[in-house]
Amino acid sequence: MKSESREKLAKVSCATLTTALFKRGLRNVFIQNVQPLSQREENMVGPAFTLRYIPAREDLNPITVFQNPEHPQRAAIEKCPEGHVMVIDSRQDPRAASAGDILVRRLMKRGGAGIVTDGGFRDSPTIAGLDIPAYQQRPSSPTNLTLHQAMDFDIPIGCGGVPVFPGDIVVGDGEGVVVIPADIADEIADEAHEMTAFEDFVTEKVMEGRSIIGLYPPTQKETLADFAEWRKKNGR
Amino acid sequence: MKSESREKLAKVSCATLTTALFKRGLRNVFIQNVQPLSQREENMVGPAFTLRYIPAREDLNPITVFQNPEHPQRAAIEKCPEGHVMVIDSRQDPRAASAGDILVRRLMKRGGAGIVTDGGFRDSPTIAGLDIPAYQQRPSSPTNLTLHQAMDFDIPIGCGGVPVFPGDIVVGDGEGVVVIPADIADEIADEAHEMTAFEDFVTEKVMEGRSIIGLYPPTQKETLADFAEWRKKNGR
Amino acid sequence: MKSESREKLAKVSCATLTTALFKRGLRNVFIQNVQPLSQREENMVGPAFTLRYIPAREDLNPITVFQNPEHPQRAAIEKCPEGHVMVIDSRQDPRAASAGDILVRRLMKRGGAGIVTDGGFRDSPTIAGLDIPAYQQRPSSPTNLTLHQAMDFDIPIGCGGVPVFPGDIVVGDGEGVVVIPADIADEIADEAHEMTAFEDFVTEKVMEGRSIIGLYPPTQKETLADFAEWRKKNGR
Amino acid sequence: MKSESREKLAKVSCATLTTALFKRGLRNVFIQNVQPLSQREENMVGPAFTLRYIPAREDLNPITVFQNPEHPQRAAIEKCPEGHVMVIDSRQDPRAASAGDILVRRLMKRGGAGIVTDGGFRDSPTIAGLDIPAYQQRPSSPTNLTLHQAMDFDIPIGCGGVPVFPGDIVVGDGEGVVVIPADIADEIADEAHEMTAFEDFVTEKVMEGRSIIGLYPPTQKETLADFAEWRKKNGR
Amino acid sequence: MKSESREKLAKVSCATLTTALFKRGLRNVFIQNVQPLSQREENMVGPAFTLRYIPAREDLNPITVFQNPEHPQRAAIEKCPEGHVMVIDSRQDPRAASAGDILVRRLMKRGGAGIVTDGGFRDSPTIAGLDIPAYQQRPSSPTNLTLHQAMDFDIPIGCGGVPVFPGDIVVGDGEGVVVIPADIADEIADEAHEMTAFEDFVTEKVMEGRSIIGLYPPTQKETLADFAEWRKKNGR
Amino acid sequence: MKSESREKLAKVSCATLTTALFKRGLRNVFIQNVQPLSQREENMVGPAFTLRYIPAREDLNPITVFQNPEHPQRAAIEKCPEGHVMVIDSRQDPRAASAGDILVRRLMKRGGAGIVTDGGFRDSPTIAGLDIPAYQQRPSSPTNLTLHQAMDFDIPIGCGGVPVFPGDIVVGDGEGVVVIPADIADEIADEAHEMTAFEDFVTEKVMEGRSIIGLYPPTQKETLADFAEWRKKNGR
Q: C187 pLDDT band (50/70/90 cuts)?
């Protein structure tokens, strides 16, 4: 992904991105039932670094497993590359935590761009106050060992019903998270950037009292002319 | 509905309304699993204007359908009468959006009294900031075309498990939305208004330390006497 | 429970408590799918006082049942001992209310330490503003009579999938509620208190840039030494 | 319940019973999501004897609890009166068994009229072959101790979303189970018996090619005349 | 639809049909969570005739509504054209019946080709024995008036999450129901017929011990040659 | 696993196995919401060979992917060792098929001991008639490409909420499937074999009219004496 793309993706909405992806036949790109812990000014943007849980087997998950420095949950946090978003496959099960504030802090300190689980975090009020975007289904205090066994990382997973391949570009805004296939991230960034200019123009016109018919989409000729003028005037 | 009824309904709680309706044998009046995008001072009140989605068929829902000025989603927004609440049957499926901020803005500009979906909105943080009440299950970025095909409007629908007939009076407060059959809206408004006075009296007494037994409901004679006095004193 | 235990429990997180309980083989202690109506400085702490609903039978639940001073919902509110947390088994069904603001106010005035339902409250925005912690699945306006029949209180129940025995110690923080068996409440309070000191130390180290490997859990010798020093310095 | 009522109830359908109850304002009488393990010639009929489970706490539910002769699950089986139907509140959770074939056999030998759980049975293929009607949500091998703690019996419960009071008359046919309040069981039996005669008449007419309009319900005069004749001819 | 198409569709599997539709970009054609009441030799095939329920409002749904000869449920049964399949939108809610045996019998006598609901039937064991295919989610005794209000028919609906337009070709086999857009029914019938021949050939080869690699799909040249020969030999 | 263990496991019930595993602290061993397609005389027994699906991305899953001989679904079928049970992680999503009859036939011909998915099979009526045990949630016609992308095999997975490691011993009877950790399979087989003898004895005694108290579990001394005698007499 080009660095301009990252900048563009930081400023468009997930809604706009899903439409750009829909036009290319990709309908299943929005991680379902996941919401941000806090509202932020800019979007979360970064390549996916994945972590996979399977259901925990009691004998393999005593509290002592964390003493193993290679435990996949801990190892994943230490190996997630800077600028990446950690995406966790918790099988959409929020009955036990996917991670807690200490691990999320460590990810933040290592330069992680964000963290997403289709389960839940423990210490979620604390995480909400950290300077790293986080998305979950709902808060969940119990230690992951209760129900989740960290198995492997950096492999393709499902998260919230969406396929996530390592390196896919993950974008999160105030309502949710979209996953963009790595190879089209630049073109999607460009298109969404353009679409956003048009949507901003439409918003202005709607607030001036114009009907959406003919305006959105721009089926009336004058709409495109007005938009051209608006771009010039607004330098976009 | 009389205009006084609208004023009364703007100031009672959905909880009170459900009790008044329960007394008339109407148990299923609260749109389930729908919450406001923002807290507001006054209730949303208005007659229902309905929109129905069915599951989308891929070949009938390319992005180009919006070029049709008669597309039911767009047409509904332009035809919803002033002061009405648009209520959308999204089959309780929030995996794709029922509408986005541009359409909700247009509805607002046209004088819509509010919008309710049993699915979700896209651009929901933006909608939360608009000057129109909106209720949804959860935010949802994907365009409606992904899963929802707008089919018709101004017909009876289900929304959040509740029957909604065009013209039913829809009231929304800080916790949810109640649907009142049109023909009893005035009497329900009157009754809820009266009940609210009594509940305010009860609240005051409870805060003074009185037990709820005999007070709520007022099975002790003195309760009704106290209430009569309270009304006089408080001009209610 | 010792009074020091109450003080300790007021300052540890539910996450920490679930780990302490997990070490004792108790995996199912976090009331699932329940969230606080408001964020508070201190935890909710108190012994459980339970209330059980069964599904309502229409002929047994007209609005007039509340005239009976022995109605279990009303009686429970008046009998819940000071300092106790009322925990309601609503069969995880939030389609009708478990209680409303007047009853919650009365509980508050009587010194109740909090209220938890695995269903929902009516008047939830009002309850959110009261000076008593409350936890629910989601707001629900309809009167309990619609779906819930209060049957008995002060007996063992399930709440959010968790067994709750009268007298169990209930702790609620900003993300949820944990139930601690009465007979181990003191030792859990002690252990969680100690664990919290260590977690605060770890948090500080992580923010200084230290890796979690060897630190959390403290498998490196220096970690324990550093911690000992930190405790001395911070008086913990 | 009169013994004629039992005979009548043994030969009407649950569908007919729900309609008779609906006419009296009872809408919630069909135990949801429960099906028979085998098809039988006659209905299950008997007064309810209830058993309640709460979620299991691990430390209270080792395998050794069954050594206690007062364990509520075992005690309930030994105390269920002859001719009664055991109805189990398993909180609609079929992830662990409510009972297995040995207990169901014992109930059968003691003269139990049937057994119903809104969870599942273990050894369900064996139970399906026993000479006692049994209804469940789905089969479930794990011992009840895994998730269910038998708490008490002979108290009001919920089962499949329906209120069940001890002594209510429980009727099960090839599609499910209906709960009839004890005090109206006789009149419901009479009415359902009469309705069944009419439905049998209607069925015959429909098979002869008659339209349902005017026939069912009998809004055409001739329908009632034809029915009167049919009753005479068929001795019903 | 050509009559040959009907014959072809009667003998292919729903699985094969979904693949043919998938190749044309139609992914959502299998009515979810619906199963046949009985296994039959031939498929159910016919154009869709639709019926739509909304949630029932208590005051509009007393038992007397059926006295109205225009009641949409009864009217739909009498108006469903011969050879059509009645498809009912019950909002995937099986807690009350969509129809019972008398109505299904009447539909059968009028030449209906089948009936499908995404809810449930009452009298389902009787319906299972009738000479008309029927599909449902699960059995449900309560009268439809309890929860479902028949609203209109012969309009586009959703059933089991699938869009169904009047006239779409509905095919049901031993595992479920597929909906084919009317305008491609003939070509889908042809293609599925051809695919079935190939699948029968593949089945034979697999039973002879051949690997699926190169055979299914036929990426090895010899596979296609073998298939050509097989067709000749088997006259297909 | 010893070959005697396989023989023993073929004749005990999943219920008995879950109890033996429960005694060792393993509570989550029964694959939830999965049922056999047909009833069989002997249990399915074999080591697990796993296959993992993630959600399908449309551009990566055209119908042509099956032309790749390395496609993980096809490759897994060809590589599953003789005597093994294929266990598929379909994320508990039965909306599209995990496999169809041709693949299951091929697995059967290669000596597979069975197949389990927590989703569904297409062509399920055909699979029900094959000479290989198969377990699923519910039938599902749509091709797996619609929703499932086969990703990898022979790795640890979750199936029906249960952890499954390659080589774990999978046992299926008439009600479901149990997963036994490989390293304790022999001792579990022995214990379940012994337990089954005792349960058969108990069954006989219950049918003779004996109470379960003191018999099951055998807390009365005479029970154990009777059992010893019974074993001698019955050669077990």
A: very high
Q: How many other CB atoms sit within 10 Å of the CB of residue F220? A: 14
* Residue B125 and residue B173 in contact, taking contact as beta carbons nearer than 8 Å: no
Q: Closest partner residue to A175 among B95, B105, B141, by Cβ?
A: B141
Q: Write the pLDDT tens digit of every residue in A192-214.
A: 999 999 999 999 999 999 999 99
Strand partners, D49: D86
Say what the pTM is: 0.98
Residue in chain B lying closest to E29 (CA): B57
Helix axes E185-207, F101-109, angle to 10 degrees: 0
CB contact under 8 A, A156 and F157: no
**CB-based contact F192:F9 (threshold 8 Å):** yes
Percent of chain F beyond pLDDT 70? Answer: 100
Interior angle at CA C121, CA C119 and CA C123, nearest 5: 160
Helix axes B185-207, B221-234, angle to 10 degrees: 100
F36's tokens: 């056999």
What six digits make up the tokens of A202?
């439409």
DSSP structural state of residue E30: B
Interface contacts (D, E; CB < 8 Å)? 82
Residue count of chain C: 236
Taking a C-beta distance cutoff of 8 angstroms, is the pair C206, C26 a contact?
A: no
**Amino acid identity for residue F108 in this structure:** M
Grouping H, G, I as helix, E, B as strand and the rest as coil, residue A30 is: strand
d(CA D176, CA D195): 19
All chains having 3 or more CB pairs closer than 8 angstroms to chain C: A, B, D
Is F in contact with D (3 or more beta carbon pairs below 8 Å)? Answer: yes
d(CA C91, CA C55): 9
Q: What are the chain E neighbours of D32 within 8 Å (beta carbons)?
A: 95
DSSP-based helix, strand, coil % in chain E, nearest 5: 40, 20, 40
* CB-CB neighbors (< 8 A) of C162 in chain D: 55
Query: B62 with E91: CB under 8 angstroms?
Result: no
Contacts with B96 (C-beta within 8 Å, 6 or more apart), sequence order:
B56, B119, B120, B140, B142, B143, B144, B145, B146, B147, B148
pLDDT tens digits for range D135-185: 999 999 999 999 999 999 999 999 999 999 999 999 999 999 999 999 999
How is chain B classified by DSSP, letter by letter?
--HHHHHHHTTS-HHHHHHHHHHTT----BPTT-EESS--SS-EEEEEEEEEEEEPPGGG--GGGGGSTT-HHHHHHHHSPTT-EEEEE-TT-TTSEEE-HHHHHHHHHTT--EEEESSEESSHHHHHTSSS-EEESS---S-GGGTEEEEEESS-EEETTEEE-TT-EEEE-SS-EEEE-GGGHHHHHHHHHHHHHHHHHHHHHHHTT--STTTSS--SHHHHHHHHHHHHHHT-
B141/A14 CB distance under 8 A: yes
Test A32 with B95 for CB contact under 8 angstroms.
Answer: yes
What whole-number distance in Å separates Cα of residue A235 and Cα of residue A224?
A: 16
Bridge partner residues of A164 (DSSP): A157
Show which subunits contact A, needing at least 3 CB pairs below 8 angstroms: B, C, F
Any chains having at least 3 CB pairs less than 8 A from chain E are B, D, F
Q: How far is F57 from chain A (nearest CA, A)?
A: 6
Per-residue pLDDT tens digits for A133-161:
999 999 999 999 999 999 999 999 999 99
What is the token pair recorded at A53?
Answer: 């849980």
CA E185 – CA D203 distance, rounded (Å)? 36
In this prediction, residue D85 has a pLDDT band, given cuts at 50, 70 and 90, of: very high
Tens digits of residue pLDDT in B12-41: 999 999 999 999 999 999 999 999 999 999
Interatomic CA distance for residues A141 and B231, integer angstroms: 48
| Each residue's pLDDT tens digit, F20-32 | 999 999 999 999 9
Distance (Å) from the alpha carbon of D36 to chain C's nearest alpha carbon: 22
